[in-house]
Design goal:
Number of helices: 6
Oligomer: single chain
Strand content: 5-15%
Distance between the termini: 33 Å
Largest sheet: 2 strands, antiparallel
Strand order of the largest sheet: 1-2
Number of strands: 4
Radius of gyration: 15 Å
Shape: globular
Structural class: mainly alpha
């Protein structure tokens, strides 16, 4: 992620910031007008600039980057479902497409939403409508 920012960070608890990207919070900030127009533009610019990391092959990363090592142990309690680049630990969630689409439209950047929708259309039905995708770029790994 760029050092200059361009997105809202997470607040895990008082005085404990999480500097990772969180899709839901940033989109809700745009939709609720919590984000100013300049902040909204910065968020949308970031999505475009960091496309491979935040969108990948299958949209959309719920958080970025994934937690690993000691941080993963503390935050997830060593939950094997939340290994790096999986599920809630930076997995890709196509169900969040509506939220990004709405934020893009409010931001006046419908071309971003169109590009994401085109990606999703290539995969979802072919992949039997999975809940989420795993992997750094969103390559599907079936969890049975």
């Amino acid at each position: 992620m760029p050092l200059r920012g361009g997105y809202f960070i997470g607040n895990v608890s008082p005085a404990r910031m999480d500097f990772r990207w969180f899709l839901v919070g940033n989109c809700i900030a745009i939709l609720s007008s919590l984000a100013t127009m300049a902040q909204t533009t910065a968020i949308m610019d970031l999505v475009e600039e960091c496309w491979e990391d935040l969108i990948g092959e299958m949209p959309l990363k719920i958080a970025y980057p994934a937690l690993e090592g000691y941080e993963w142990n503390i935050v997830t309690g060593c939950n094997p479902k939340n290994t790096r680049w999986s599920y809630h630990n930076s997995g890709s969630w196509p169900v969040l497409l509506w939220l990004l689409t709405a934020a893009c439209n409010k931001a006046g950047r419908p071309q971003i939403a169109k590009r994401v929708i085109e990606l999703v259309e290539q995969h979802l039905s072919k992949d039997a409508w999975p809940e989420y995708y795993d992997g750094k770029k969103g390559r599907y790994i079936r969890k049975n």
